[in-house]
Write a structure and sequence with these properties.
Two copies of one chain form a homodimer. Chain A is α/β, with parallel strands linked by helices. Helices cover about 35% and strands about 25% of the residues of chain A. At the A-B interface, strand 13, helix 6, helix 8 and helix 9 of A face strand 13, helix 6, helix 8 and helix 9 of B.
């Protein structure tokens, strides 16, 4: 089968054998935004020469501004519910395939403000077997970080923090941009830790952000270290907002799913709070989609 | 005399008579950023046909990337200290004038993170006589909101929140931009209040921001009301971060200095916290610079 993780800004396609092993993968920058008006063409190219019948699609491709909107599934939901909600999709040019779209998940909260994810549920689906019963906290850091509570094999709740998007906005477009030199991929751990500790102070994020500017004015950190300071500050505010991390019965460990640069930062930040973590790679999406197809009885097993 | 309030993105010049009354004013978009490399030319044009000898300049024109850097004056500082620290400046082409630059102010905090302002001190200088003795809290909302504590006629402390800049970044460049239609200058009070109340919930700003997106997805507020929701959310976080507003001995009233649109929002937000406020116009900058020149003995009085 083929699993396609088609998000806002990129597309990843995996060719998976009957055992669930990834035999090949492709990646392109033709995310949903760049693919509007030519979804079929982009997908054809992503699948070229892969003749497998079953194709699962996940991510913003099933969102309101995607190719074919699929309603959110309500939490709690496990593998069974997700597999049952896979939505068949038969666009022209794909009549030799059996295509299905994975629904996103919605959590309704007492505050009246719902939360959603679309795409990340497949990565968690790839982890559910390994986690087993009990309550687990999973974090998928990124542009929109997702904090997901898993209870007894089902996705019970989720919360989003716009940490990565805010970092990028401030880094590129704000007054702080002119104070920050150097590449973002270098982590200055002293500055990161100082930013993280600052997030525990009174004053709130809107005030703390201005400290990046005064640090630049008065040379408290080298300009090249300020992106790390900002990163630590934002991740600190993110973590301190997660209710599950501040409870007395907080989890002993957080499961982190993300790329190496993010795993490094979040592992460090959780460590500063005395919380252990375990890193997992984003290829879990392929594992999860294979599990969903198996459960739906459409993958050769 | 002439008072020039020369900030990052605009220039305002006031011609002031011996009584301190404003006789004429001019405004241009030639802020400090747009004037680099041609400061003298921009100022000549702003002063054209005004032959007064004394010219006070304030704002980012005295900053590191301005025309002539003037060191920050340390808080606490009152009219006397500011008047004594006016820095003479004699660039070519202005030898018939007596030009001085008002220093910005710096507050050092136990956290090790300093705070600064440059330009706003002249507006507060224009208010000090009216405030008299005792402790007063002054807020200058805007791109970078300044919260200033005045004790017995001196500026004792200050804190900055990047509220307005973050609003503009999110409004223009973020994923939330596509969810928000309508002009920013229309205030939808129900949405503003809902955003403000949301800021009191657990979860933190980075999480609350994503709620703007889910509100758009699920139609909780009309898209045209979402800028007001975002404004209420950000101002709510700003206010809840101000230590002086959360203390038991919080001030009975906040003095607000700003334009009409900002006064409307901040008066409303403070009212939701049960705090009274009084609005003042930004022309206080001219009043303040006249007071400084008088005290320095350089204005005809």
């Amino acid at each position: 089968m083929i699993a396609v993780d088609w998000g806002t800004s990129s597309l990843r396609a995996y060719r998976i054998d009957a055992d669930g092993a990834i035999r090949a993968q492709r990646r392109s920058e033709d995310g949903v935004l760049a693919s509007r008006g030519r979804f079929a063409e982009v997908l054809s190219s992503a699948l070229a020469e892969w003749d497998d019948e079953v194709v699962l699609l996940s991510g913003m491709v099933g969102g309101r501004s995607g190719w074919n909107e699929v309603p959110y599934l309500e939490c709690p939901a496990g593998i069974d519910a997700l597999a049952a909600a896979l939505q068949p999709f038969a666009p022209p040019r794909f009549d030799t395939r059996r295509m299905l779209i994975v629904p996103g998940l919605r959590a309704s909260h007492a505050s009246g403000v719902a939360d959603v994810m679309r795409g990340e549920e497949t990565q968690i689906a790839g982890l559910l077997d390994e986690l087993g019963d009990g309550t687990h906290l999973v974090c998928l850091p990124g542009t929109h970080s997702k904090w997901v509570t898993v209870c007894d094999g089902r996705i019970a709740d989720l919360a989003t923090a716009m940490t990565g998007e805010l970092f990028a906005l401030l880094r590129k477009h704000s007054i702080l941009a002119q104070s920050m030199s150097g590449p973002d991929d270098h982590l200055d751990t002293a500055a990161f830790d100082a930013g993280f500790e600052r997030s525990a102070d009174r004053g709130g994020l809107l005030h703390h952000l201005f400290g990046v500017r005064t640090h630049a004015l008065f040379g408290r950190h080298p300009d090249a270290a300020l992106p790390s300071y900002l990163s630590g500050l934002l991740i600190g505010h993110e973590l301190r907002g997660i209710e599950a991390l501040s409870r007395n019965d907080r989890p002993a460990r957080v499961e982190l799913i993300g790329n190496d640069a993010l795993l490094l930062r979040y592992t460090r930040a959780l460590g500063l709070l005395g919380i252990a973590s375990r890193g997992h790679h984003e290829q879990l999406a392929a594992v999860g989609m294979h599990r969903l197809a198996e459960r739906a009885g459409i993958a050769r097993a």
